[in-house]
Specification:
alpha+beta, Rieske Iron-sulfur Protein, seven-stranded antiparallel β-sheet, globular, binds FE2/S2 (inorganic) cluster, binds fe (ii) ion
Length: 374
Amino acid sequence: MSIEWSETDQAAGVSLPAAFFYDQSVFERERLRIFFRSWHLVAHVNELRNPGDFVTHAILEQSVIVTRIQGGELRAFHNACQHRGNRLIDAPRGHTPAITCAYHAWTYALDGRLRGAPRTECLKNFDKSRHGLKPVRVEVLASFVFVNLDPEAQSLAEMAPGAEAQMRKYLPDLDRLTLIEQVDVPVAANWKVIQENSIEGYHFDYSGPVHKQLVKLIDFEGYKLEEHDKYWTYIGPPRKDVTHAYGLPLDNARWQTDWFFNIGLWPNATIYAFPYSDVVGTFIMNPTGPETSSLRFAYYGVEGRGLPEVTKACIRWMNEELGPEDIRLNISNQKGLRSMGFEKGRYIIGDSLDNRSEHLVRHFHRLCHEAIRS
Ligand code: FES
Ligand SMILES: [Fe+2]
């Protein structure tokens, strides 16, 4: 078993060795060098609209609280009481005037300052201002809220120049979104296996009947997959003759875009819209171990306006048909990577970087490899 990816292999278009998808030491390096240093999508700004609103977000064993403070700013903190370290909030979201620890009732303001700590008056030199919650970086990109555990990380805007403009072009209602549903699906596959599957169109023609339905909704020959360093887009133009989508006629339907739009942000978040549906989807590939992940699917509709029937059908189709078809591939891919009979393969990349090319997979592998070796 090798966890080396030689320059010769890379130059020859040989893919990242299989051990990268199950080895414990690779996973440990990813934990520290990828997940503890990169931006994590936690919510849409409208999930934190009012002062006192909060969400929590897990990054492996770490947990972060994001709050909206009086005055309107967002703040983020490590989810640990500064007395004896108790986890402060278990709920994924909620509303609270202050954060009170369930152990000995230390109470923190929404901006992290320690406000009350019973019995500390008996201490000679206890300075409350030195025991506030430990801050975490928080930023907003295109109305989505991200956190980063690395105080030195480059900003999101520096990391992904042009990403917001791309999103605004295809998703006109980005600022008016409201969460409709969010589910976490455990999958027995390494997070990179799942990412690879979502960033290539090579499998669309071959991997099952639902993918063929997707191909029929777009001008698949015009499907373009583009790498931009720490983000990537994969976008399919509409087909002129489409009258039905997801089993329903398009008459009177409304949508964000008639294109198939996807943007991936390093390392594990995708924001997308399926053609003819009036929702924005987010898809986050959270690792839970070297060979297990938790996929978070969320759908956001436009505030104050109901979902068209075609959109509801699209969400059903995503959850019950396309998603499971891909997840079956993820699981069988993981099993095969574990085989003694597989070590590495070849990227299928021709000169044209066309709709069936695996160049985004190679790009993603290079980013992972660079981060792991750093
Ligand atoms: S651990 Fe939180 S108050 Fe004691
Ligand atoms: Fe797929």
